[in-house]
Amino acid sequence: MVKNAIETNNLTKFYGKARGIENVTFSVEEGEIFGFIGPNGAGKSTTIRTLLSLIYPSSGSAKIFGMDCNKQAPEVLKRIGYLPSEVFYYDGMKVKDLLNYSASFYKKDCKKRIQELSERMNLDLNKKIDDLSFGNKKKVGIVQGLLHSPDLIILDEPTSGLDPLMQQTFFDLLEEENKRGAAVLMSSHILGEVQRLCNRVAIIKEGKIIKLEKISTLQEASYKRFKFEIQNEIPKDYFAIKGVNDLKVEGKTHSFIFKGDINTITTKLSNVRLTNLWADEPDLEEIFMHYYSKEV
């Protein structure tokens, strides 16, 4: 029987009359890397802060490893590593002092792990926090989140501030932690990250989950990207039919994303004289924008 690392049921948070999240329901299985995607303001951080009991829900429930996130918060938090989107620290402390202080909450010897992670992330343990760049402060947050080998890793926009080389190192670390058995919830608006790492994804829009799907299904569920050049003249709206999205016409070049019965497009194309034709799989970015451009 598959067990869930995270389970939410109609999780809702309002700030007065302002919308935070509404009826957010999803689960993350133990050992899964799960993507939580949407633009800024969609409700990703509100959901995460509710899971961490940093804020309390207006209604609904959330459990981590079967424990109530609010009622059993101390036990829950022992098993979580968390990286917020923005990191703030005691500026006067050295990096090693901050990390040792963080490790003291877990009542285990994390010195070897701190050293290993710092070397991997090219982080100077002897520097003061206030002397670090934003990117290096993010590295501190990564080491802090992983130093106790958590069972669940929660990441909120984790790669902001990291250069491409450090992003690659970070992704490698995440995959290693996942192979060790850790579940990962990764919130991001950078779809390439989610596409590379995650098994499943939830798309959140205006505080509500609008799609919960496997990455492979999102990419393969009858979505095709078409681009072609034509010889004869056709009306600009000739391909403005059901299933066609993001239609662009530039001179004799037409392009769009199509979801549906592929024979619909081939029938339309049979009446067109083509100079060239391309058909391939759209990337997750294009699929995601389709979900955000219209209600599902």
Keywords, please?
single chain, 296 residues, alpha/beta, Rossmann fold, Alpha-Beta Plaits, 6-stranded mixed beta sheet, 10 helices, 14 strands, elongated
CATH topology name of the largest domain, in short, is Rossmann fold
**Approximately what portion of the residues adopt beta-strand conformation?**
25-35%
What sort of overall outline do the alpha carbons produce when their principal axes are compared? elongated
Counting DSSP H or I runs of 4 or more residues, the number of helices is 10
CATH architecture of the largest domain: 3-Layer(aba) Sandwich
Order of helices and strands: EEEHEEHEHHHEHEHEEHEEEHEH
Cα distance spanning the termini: 31 Å
Which class of the largest domain in CATH terms?
Answer: Alpha Beta
Mean pLDDT: 89
- What is the number of E strands? 14
Helix content: 25-40%
Structural class: alpha/beta
How many discrete structural domains? 2
Give the biggest sheet.
6 strands, mixed
The low-confidence parts are: none
What does this structure look like?
- This protein has 296 residues and is an alpha/beta fold.
- The protein has two domains: 4-216, P-loop containing nucleotide triphosphate hydrolases (Rossmann fold), CATH 3.40.50; 222-293, Alpha-Beta Plaits.
- It is 32% helix and 32% strand.
- It has ten helices and 14 strands.
- A six-stranded mixed beta sheet has the order 6-7-8-3-9-10, with helices on both faces. A four-stranded antiparallel beta sheet has the order 2-1-4-5. The chain has a four-stranded antiparallel beta sheet with strand order 12-13-11-14, sandwiched between helices.
- Strand 7, helix 6 and strand 8 form a beta-alpha-beta unit.
